[in-house]
Design brief:
Layout (H helix, E strand, L loop, with lengths): L2 H23 L4 H22 L6 H4 L2 H16 L6 H26 L4 H22 L14 H16 L4 H22 L14
Helix pairs in contact: 1-2, 1-4, 1-5, 1-6, 2-4, 2-6, 5-6, 5-7, 5-8, 6-7, 7-8
Length: 207
Amino acid sequence: MSFLTLLDYASVLVFAASGAMVASRAQLDIIGFAFIACLTAVGGGTVRDVLLDRNPVFWVGDPVPILLASGVAATVFFTAHLVESRLRWVIWLDSFALAIAVPAGTGVAMELGHGPVIVVLMGMATGSLGGLMRDVVCNEVPLVLKQGELYISCALAGATVAVVLLWLGSTPATALVSCAAMTWVTRAGSLIFGWHLPIYKGRPPRS
């Protein structure tokens, strides 16, 4: 099993848990849990593989990610009531999933020989789009767009670090581990210390 496959599996597990937690907040049935968990787990990777013309899409060629996500969904369905603050769990699970999925997407694009811009974009897409789909379907405020927090910029920072380190001569493994670390540290810093980018403040639109 390759390092990139392990990254995909890991991101599937953690994103599936965050998706199932959101499903519990929406009070869905067990099939709804499985659907939201799978959508969250494979959404970003699916968009990545389609854009890169990677055939077959990773979970079509290997259905294990779907089985893993469904298993996580069933587990959360029977245990979510034991968790006091499910929103907090969603936010932190999502931060770990982001830190795994960004290097997974970055690594796939690197392995296929794409240039720096595409590598960075694929890292961002893999890390953010599954969570975006989850939040839109469950009528939650998307974490990707939540005002005053770093999210997509964390994916950008992590993927950029990987590209720069690879250009400087680092091994792919070192570049991807550094990508994960940068992604998670910036996301965690936003949650704990309130790090954020400047927000546009213009005049309100006229009615």
